[in-house]
Amino acid sequence: MIARALLLLGVLTACFGCSDDLPSFFDIEKFRLLGLSATPPTIRQDESATLSALVTEADAEYQWTWCPLSSGTFGAFECAITEEELQALIDEAVGAGVITVPPYDLGTGATATWTFDLPAAGFSAFCDFLLESGADLPEGADFPDCEEGYDLQIRLDTRLGDESVTGVRDLRLLLDDDDQANNNPSILGARAVELDDQGEEVGGDIVVDADVPAQLERDKVYKFFIDVPASDAEPFFEVPVGGTEPVERLDDLTVAWFREGGEFDKNRTGFIDGTSEFELLLENEFTTPTAEDYEDGQLRLFWTIRDNRGGTGFFQRTIELVEP
C-alpha cells in the first residue's frame, strides 16, 4: 500500500509539473494532510503504536479507524470486511466468546493508539483464510504481505470546515520472532546559511528554532541543513532482485520539503545505501519569496522523512520574512 501511495504521489507531482499554471504538490496553499505516522511502525503481541498526523491546520477535526483488510484504491480504501464479518470468522475458528474484535473506531483525538491485543496466531490464520478465498476478495483489495508480518490499514479522515482529506498507511504486526522490527526516522533540527550570488556561504548559521521564528531576508537564497541521525538509516535484511539469500543493507531515506511560500531547489532529497551520500539527504537551497509573491510576514515550512519500510517522521518550523 505504501509503495502504491508513493507511486501515485510521483504521478501527481509529474502532472503538476506539466503546466506553470498549476501549483506544485509541495506548495501549501490550502488545508493539507502531509503524512501519517505510527510510533513504532512495527509492533509485536501486546505492544501499542501511537498514531499521529502532520496536518497544516492545528484546529482540524480527526476521525481515526483501523481495518484488517483494505479495499484499496478501487474501493477508496474502505474496509473490505466489517467488524461483524471479522467477528463471525473468528467465532467460527475458535468458538463464540473467546476473542472479541476491538472496534474499528479509534477516536477523534489528534492522536490515537492501536494495541496488538488480538492473538498473533489469529492474524496468521486470517492470512491462510485469505489465501484460500483470494478470488472472492473485492477488486483492488490490498492483500496483506504475510511473509514479514501482517499489514493492517490505519485510516485518518480529517476535516477543516468544508474541506476534508483522507489518508491511509500500514501498521505492520510482527507475528514471528524473526520478523524484522523497524523504527521511525526523525528530523531533530534545522539551520540556514545565506548564499551570495556566487553560491558561497556568507554570515553565520541561522538556527531555525521552534520557539522564535528565524528571520530570513526576502528574495534571498539560503542553504538549509536538517539534522537527521545517520543511525536512522537502520540495517535490515532483504533478498535482492534476482537473489535467493537475504543480504544486510541500510534503509533508504527520503525527505519531502513543503513550503507555504518561496521555493526549494529540490522537492525531495534522499539517501540510498550504496548509491548516494548521506549528506545529500540533509541539504537543500531555499529562495525566500518577494512581498509581491507572498504578502504574509511569516511562512511555515514542513518536512516529512520516510524510510522504505514504513517508518515516518515529521518536522515543521515557522520563519519570519524581513526586508533586506
CATH class of the largest domain: Mainly Beta
The rough form would be described as globular
The helix-strand sequence is HEEEEHEEHEEEEEEEEEEEHEEE
Contiguous uncertain segments of 5+ residues: 1-21
Total DSSP E strands: 20
Kindly report the spatial arrangement of strands forming the biggest sheet.
Answer: 2-8-7-4-5
User: What radius of gyration results from the CA coordinates?
Assistant: 22 Å
| Range of helix content | 10-25%
Report on the biggest sheet. Answer: 5 strands, mixed
Highlighted features:
324 residues, mainly beta, Immunoglobulin-like, 5-stranded antiparallel beta sheet, 4 helices, 14% helix, 39% strand, globular, disordered N terminus
Q: Can you put this structure into words, describing what you see?
A:
The protein is 14% helix and 39% strand. It has 324 residues and is mainly β. The chain folds into two domains: 23-173, Immunoglobulin-like, CATH 2.60.40; 189-322, Sandwich (Immunoglobulin-like), CATH 2.60.40. A five-stranded mixed beta sheet has the order 2-8-7-4-5. It has a five-stranded antiparallel beta sheet with strand order 10-9-12-18-16. Strands 11-20-19-15-17 form a five-stranded mixed beta sheet. It is globular and about 75 Å long. Residues 1-21 have low confidence and may be disordered.
